[in-house]
């Protein structure tokens, strides 16, 4: 299997090449079709990288940048609680200052976080790309900020059962 692109720049996975046309698969939708060979050119990209393009850009960035649960949790907290100052983030978890700085730098470089000011101190917020990625994987709800009737996880108790069960 090889990665190829047609004369419009659309990328495909090459399945079979014959004298005049090649059988290709569109990694976005899985459709297979024949394309004239003179319209195709090889690209310098692994077929697996081409296949990975079926995942949205924001989710690919999240998956390739976040390598542990603590970092993912940091993004979820920032998405749910809004921008937070560095001191607040340090107080919230057992990150040492240098470890947190490293994580924040990597996440900012990847476009998942943006530096901001919170109560007069340096802070961070998730970017729109990060928010879309977290929504896509189900880590946060869409329109979470607008849902005032959402039940806080800590307020849901087993005593909240219908009256007929008591």
From TrEMBL:
Biased composition (Acidic residues): 140-151
Compositional bias segments (type: Polar residues): 154-166
InterPro entries: DUF7346, WH_DNA-bd_sf
Pfam family, one: DUF7346
Domain of life of the native organism: Archaea
Segments for region (Disordered): 137-166
Name the record gives this protein: Transcriptional regulator
Species in which this protein is naturally found: Haloterrigena gelatinilytica
